[in-house]
Design a protein that fits this description.
By secondary structure, this protein is mostly beta strands. The strands form three sheets. Strands 1, 2, 4, 5, 6, 7, 8 and 10 form an eight-stranded antiparallel β-sheet that branches. Mean pLDDT is about 80; it is low at about 5-30, about 190-200 and about 200-220. It contains four helices and twelve strands; from the N terminus they run H-E-E-H-E-E-E-H-E-E-E-E-E-E-E-H.
Length: about 220
């Protein structure tokens, strides 16, 4: 596959997308969902998407807020073929409950979504060869799909790869919104700084590894 890998220039800092379509204010819909919606906990500037037609398309569909979830633009569209691979890092550790996605009723709707937790080294080749943390089957619908994950597999997640392996027959895949539900656990990433035991002689200071060092040890241990 001749996937087109765009370099990220992180120029999409626009959180001011609220001027898009004020007529689509669904903020009063399904209010309980907002209690577990992970949005502020996403590191938007570090999102990267392989095989997107334009740089930062993937980041922009994730960056849409809950009231903007039904809007047609921005949209993520695949380039060389129907596959997409998105890397989404969180600002701390999350217990993931479900993936929220909105696509379409036509054949450009994604079909197979493979999830990989805590990997920052995936490309299309490795994503195709490795066993996914979990595989989800999506429907052809323009409504929001709330796809529960096995919480035991995503209880200590600090980044997530979403590999859209195929769609319903189109040459390209289109996605309009992606969201995440779960619990945020900032404490699992602290202390970040290195701590030392107090000792009379500085040469006797003992290094105490922080929790973050322990967590990072599992990053490549899948």
């Amino acid at each position: 596959m001749s996937h087109h890998h765009d370099d990220h220039d992180h120029s999409h800092h626009g959180h001011g997308d609220d001027d898009h379509g004020h007529g689509h204010d669904h903020s009063d819909d399904i209010e309980p969902a907002l209690q577990t919606l992970l949005w502020k906990q996403i590191d938007f500037e570090s999102i990267r998407t392989l095989n997107e037609t334009e740089t930062d398309q993937g980041a922009k569909v994730v960056e849409k807020t809950w009231p903007q979830r039904m809007e047609a633009e921005p949209m993520l569209e695949s380039d060389a073929d129907e596959q997409l691979l998105m890397f989404v890092p969180f600002t701390g550790v999350v217990k993931l409950h479900s993936i929220l996605i909105r696509s379409s009723e036509d054949s450009s709707a994604p079909k197979t979504l493979k999830l990989f937790s805590n990997r920052d080294d995936l490309d299309f080749s490795t994503a195709s060869d490795l066993q996914a943390t979990q595989t989800l089957e999506l429907s052809q619908t323009s409504q929001i799909q709330d796809l529960p994950v096995k919480r035991s597999l995503f209880g200590n997640t600090y980044n997530l790869n979403l590999f859209i392996e195929d769609n319903y027959g189109d040459d390209v895949t289109r996605v309009f919104w992606i969201g995440f539900k779960g619990d945020y656990m900032n404490l699992n990433r602290e202390p970040v700084e290195v701590l030392y035991e107090k000792a009379a002689n500085p040469k006797d200071h003992t290094l105490v590894q922080g929790v973050s060092d322990m967590a990072s040890g599992t990053k490549h241990g899948m």
